[in-house]
Amino acid sequence: MSDPSKEWPLWEVFVRGKGGLSHRHAGSVHAVDAKMALEHARDTYTRRMEGVSLWVLPSAQIVASDPGDAGPLFEPAEDKVYRHPTFYKIPDGITHI
Amino acid sequence: MDVIATYALRLGDDSLILGQRLSEWCGHAPALEVDLSLANIALDQVGQATHFLNLAGELEGKGRDGDALAFRRDVMDFTNCLLVEQPNGDFAQTIARQFLFSHYQALLFEQMAAVKDTRFAAIAAKAAKEVAYHATLASDWVIRLGDGTDESKARMVAGLAWVWRFADELFAMDAADAAAIEAGAGVDKSALRGAWDSRVDAVLAEATLARPAPHRATTGGRIGRHSEHLGHLLSEMQFLQRAYPGATW
C-alpha cells in the first residue's frame, strides 16, 4: 500500500455532455494541480465522446451535508407531493428533463 | 512500392511502432490516470497507423491492407524512424521520446492538413488535433519532472540525453520526401526544424533544463536499418499472425 500522505490530491470531475446541458459529476481523479487534474479528467472521463466541457475542483473544497442530519433536512419534503410537476403532460420528444 | 506509397508507409510505421511501445505501459504507469493518458496516446497513434497503412496498401495496389503491412512484414521492411522504436526506459525517458516526437508530428500534420492530396490532408487534419494534445501533455510532464525534485530532474535530463541523438532523423529528407512534395502529398520536413527548435527550447527553458549537448545523429530507420529493439517489439506485436497466419476474430 502506498503512503497516503504521498498520494496526489483528489479532484472531482464534472462533464458537460453537450451545449445547453449542465455539468454533471462524473467521478474523480488524482492530480497535483488544476492543470494536471484537467488533463487526467480529459483522459479518464471523455474518451468516448462524453463531453464538450470539463470542470475540476479539489475534493477537499466540497462541503457536504451531515448524513446524521438527513432526517430534518430531507424528510419534510416527503409529503409535499404537490411540489412535483407531475400533473402536466410532457410532450413527446422532450429530452433532458 | 512507389515513392508515394513509401511515404504513407513511413508515416504509418512511425505511428504504429510508437503506439505499440506506449501500449507496453498499460498497467505499469506511475498512476492510474497516467496509465490512461499513455494508453490514449497509444490508441491515437494506432488509429493514425491504420489510416496511413491502409492508404499505403491502396497506393501500392498489391492487395495488402493496413493489417497485412503491420503484421506480415519483417524488421528490415519497416520504415519508422529510430526514435519511436527506442525502449520505454523509465517514465522520464518515455516522456522525453514523446516530447520530441509529438512536437514533430504536430508541426508535420499542421502542414500536411493543407496539402493538395486530400487523402493525406484528411488523415493529417484529424491527427493534428490528437497530436497537439500529445505535445501539450508531454511538455507539461517535461516541465513537471525537469522543474521537480532532484531525482525527477536527473531522470528527465538522462531521458532527454538518450533520445536527443534520434531527433535529426525526424527532419531528414530523401527522394521519397521530395517525390511526395512534388506530388502534393508531402511536407518539407527540413523546414519544420526551426519551429520545432523554438517550441522545444521554450518548454526546456520553463523546465529549467538545458538543451542536451549536440550528439552525432543516429539514422537509418527510413531505409530499414533499425536498432536491435525493433525486432523484439515486432516479435511481440506480430506473434499471433506469425503463429496463426491469417487468424481473425
Characterize the structure shown.
The complex is a heterodimer of chains A (97) and B (249). Chain A is an alpha+beta fold. Helices cover 18% and strands 22% of the residues of chain A. Chain A has a domain at 4-64: Ubiquitin-like (UB roll), CATH 3.10.20.520. Chain A contains two helices and three strands. A three-stranded antiparallel sheet of chain A has the order 2-1-3. In chain A, strand 1 (10-16) and strand 2 form a beta hairpin. Chain B has 249 residues and is mainly alpha-helical. Chain B has one domain (3-243): Ferritin, core subunit, four-helix bundle (Ferritin, Up-down Bundle). Chain B contains twelve helices and no strands. Chain B has helices at residues 3-23, 32-60, 66-71, 82-85, 91-112, 118-146, 150-163, 167-171, 175-182, 193-206, 228-237, 239-243. The longest helix of chain B is centred in the first third of the chain and has 29 residues, at 32-60. The model of chain B has no long low-confidence stretch (mean pLDDT 96). Chains A and B meet through helix 1 of A and helix 2 and helix 6 of B.
Order of helices and strands of chain A: EEHEH
- Estimate what percentage of residues of chain A fall within beta strands: 15-25%
- Number of β-strand runs of chain A: 3
The stretches of 5 or more residues of chain B where confidence is low (pLDDT under 50) are: none
Name the assembly state.
heterodimer
> Which whole number gives the mean pLDDT of chain A?
89
Q: What gyration radius of chain B follows from the Cα positions, in whole Å?
A: 17 Å
- What is the radius of gyration of chain A? 19 Å
The CATH first-level class of chain B comes to: Mainly Alpha
Q: Give the count of structural domains of chain B.
A: 1
**N→C terminal distance of chain A:** 44 Å
Task: Please identify, by name, the CATH architecture of the domain at 4-64 in chain A.
Answer: Roll
Looking at the overall shape, the CATH architecture of chain B is Up-down Bundle
CATH class of the domain at 4-64 in chain A: Alpha Beta
Number of H/I helices of chain A: 2
Uncertain segments of chain A of ≥5 residues (pLDDT<50)?
Answer: none
